[in-house]
Amino acid sequence: MEYVLGHGTQNDFVLLPDPDDRLDLTPAAVRALCHRRRGLGADGVLRVAPSSVPGADWFMDYRNGDGSIAEMCGNGVRVFARFLVEAGWAAPGSFAVATRAGLRTVELDHHGDVTVDMGPAVVGAESTAVVPSPAGPAGSVTTFAGVAVDVGNPHLACVTTADLDALDLTAAPGYDAELFPHGVNVEFLAPLDAGLATRLRVHERGSGETCSCGTGTVAGAVAGLRAAGLDAGTVTVTTPGGVLRVGVDPSTTTLTGPAVLVAKGEVELGGIEGGDGPDGELQAFVRLAEHATA
Ligand SMILES: N[C@@H](CCC[C@H](N)C(=O)O)C(=O)O
Fold first, then answer.
1. What is the ipTM of this complex?
2. Measured distance CA(188)–CA(200) in Å, rounded
3. For the site Could be important to modulate the pK values of the two catalytic cysteine residues, which positions are given (predicted)?
C-alpha cells in the first residue's frame, strides 16, 4: 500500500492513507513500520481513515512506535492536515480533524506552518519524575518536581533549572503509576525567560525520547506559564527538532509550527504482518517498491 513520510519539528510519522477504512493495523505492523533499521523508521503511524464523527471528514488513527494507541498527537495532526491538503482530500484553509480526543481544528498558512486548536489544557496534581543522575554513583537518581497536564493525552511537565542537555532520557523516567495508570509523557523544560521562551526535552510514552512532541510542548508551555504565575501568553518552545509556538488562554491552547511531507512510496504490509518472531525480534519484511523524495 501507499505510504507517506512526514514530520513536524522532526517528530516523524509514517502516514498510511486508508480512505476505504480497510486496513487492520496490528501493533506488530506498527512496530515494524516504525523500526529505524528494519522498517521505514518513525516515531509513530498516522492512519488516514474516514471519520464517522459529524464535523470532520477524516479521522487521525494515531499509533505510537511501540504499537500502542494514543488519544492525540499535536505534531501528528499538523502533518496529517498537510497530507490531506497535498493529496487534495481537504481544501486549504481551516478544517476539523477527528481524533480520539475529539475534533481538532487545523489551519494552514502561506509560510508552511500549520496551527492546531488543541483545546483547553487541564492542569492536575503536582507529582515527580525520576531520572538517572548524570554524574552520581551508578544507580543514583534525581527527582524533578512536575505537574500533570492533560492535553487529550497525559503529560507530566517539569520546569527545572537543571542542565537539560545532561538529562539521561534513554529510558522512561519514573512516575507515579497511581496518578498516571495509562502511562505518561514526561517533559523537562527551562523556566520561561522574559520573552516567554523556553527549551524542552521530552520522553514520550510509547516512542521514547523524540525530537519534539506537540502535546508535550503545549503541556510544557502551560506548566511554564503556571510556574511564572501566569495563565495566558504566547510561548516559544525550542525542542531538539525545531521551534514551536504555543498560544495559551483560559479557554483554549493553540500549537503552531512546520509540517513537512518528505517522501512517499509503496510498502508491503502483508510481509510486515509476519509480526514478532520467536526470538522477540521483529520480522519486518518491509519491501520498498519506491522511496522517492516527494
Ligand atoms: N508526539 C505526539 C504525541 C504522541 C502520543 C504520545 N506519545 C502518547 O502516548 O500520549 C505529539 O506531537 O503530541
1. 0.99
2. 6
3. 155, 204
